[in-house]
C-alpha cells in the first residue's frame, strides 16, 4: 500500500514548494539588492544609475522568476515559455520606464541587453525544472543556489570596481558638389531648418531626438559662439576654438542649461555621470575634381560598466545626428 509521499500529487507539491521557496528568496534578494543599489548609486536628480546589476542582474532574475510563474509545472513547450517571458519583460520595461520616467533612448538601449539576459534566466529555470523532477537532486539545488549569488556579485562589482573612462570620436563625411568657399558660410549660419530637411535616422526618426532647428555663429574667429537649437526647447552653445576659413571650424561644447536631458532622456545628460560631450567641428577637404569632402566630428567620454556597448550606441545616435546635419547642408547647396 502506497503512502502519501509516494503519490504523484504529493511529489509534485514538494517539488513546487521547493522551487517556490527558492524563487521567493531570489525575488526578495533581487528587490533588496535593487533598493540597495539605489541607495548607494542614485544621483542627486534621482536618476537610476547605469550599473552591471541594473543591466545584467535584474533582467536575469526577472526572466528566471517569470519563467517559473508562467509555467510552474513545466507543461508548456520551451518556445511558448520564452515567448511569454519576452512579453513579460516588455511589460516590465514599459512599466519601469513609466515608474522611473525613463526616456525612449534608455528603454531601447536597456531592452537590447535585458531581452537576452531575461531569456538566459528563463533557460536556467527550464533546465532546473527538468532536474527537479527527480527529488533529492543535490546538483540542481546547488545550481539554483548559485543563481542567488549573481546579483550580489554584480552589486559588489558595481560598488568596489570603479567605472573606467574611455574617449571616443564619432564622425561622418559627405562629398559635396561645391567648393570649400561655397560650403563655409553654411557652417557659420544654418538658420530656419525645416522638418522636411535632412534624412531618416534612427536617432531622430525612431528614438525621437528633436531635429536641429538652427546653428548660427555670433562673432568672428576664435572666441565666437555658435548657438545651436534642436526642436522647440533644446539649446546649447559651441565655443569656437579653431577658425581656419574654408578649411576647419572647431569648438568646445558648452551646455548652459539641462534642456538636452530634460527633453530627450535623463541618462544622456551631456555633462552627466556617464557621458561627457567635449569637442566637435568641421573639416573641409578639397578634392581634385572640384568637389569637397565635408567631415563633422564629435569627441566625447563614456563612463559606464560597458563602455564598448555605449560606444556602439554613440555611433548610432551621434552618427545619425551628424549624417542628418550633413544632408541638410547638401540640400542648402542644391
How large a portion of the residues is in β-strands, by DSSP E?
Answer: 15-25%
Count of DSSP-assigned helices: 9
Order of helices and strands: HHHHHEHEHEEEEHEEH
**What does the overall shape look like?**
elongated
Mean pLDDT reading: 80
**Stretches where pLDDT falls below 50 for ≥5 residues?**
1-6
Most strands sheet: 8 strands, antiparallel
Helix content: 40-55%
Q: Provide the spatial order of strands within the biggest beta sheet.
A: 1-8-7-6-5-4-3-2
Structural class based on helices, strands and sheet pairing: alpha+beta
What would your notes on this structure say?
The protein has 334 residues and is an alpha+beta fold. It is built from 9 helices and 8 strands. Helix 2 packs across helix 3. The longest helix is centred in the first third of the chain and has 34 residues, at 8-41. The radius of gyration is 26 Å and the shape is elongated. Mean pLDDT is 80; it is low at 1-6.
Q: What is the secondary structure topology, with strand pairs?
A:
Elements: H1 8-41, H2 52-70, H3 78-100, H4 104-131, H5 138-160, E1 166-176, H6 180-188, E2 189-190, H7 202-206, E3 212-218, E4 225-230, E5 234-244, E6 248-254, H8 259-263, E7 275-286, E8 292-302, H9 307-333
Antiparallel strand pairs: 1-8, 2-3, 3-4, 4-5, 5-6, 6-7, 7-8
Helix pairs in contact: 1-2, 1-5, 2-3, 2-4, 2-5, 3-4
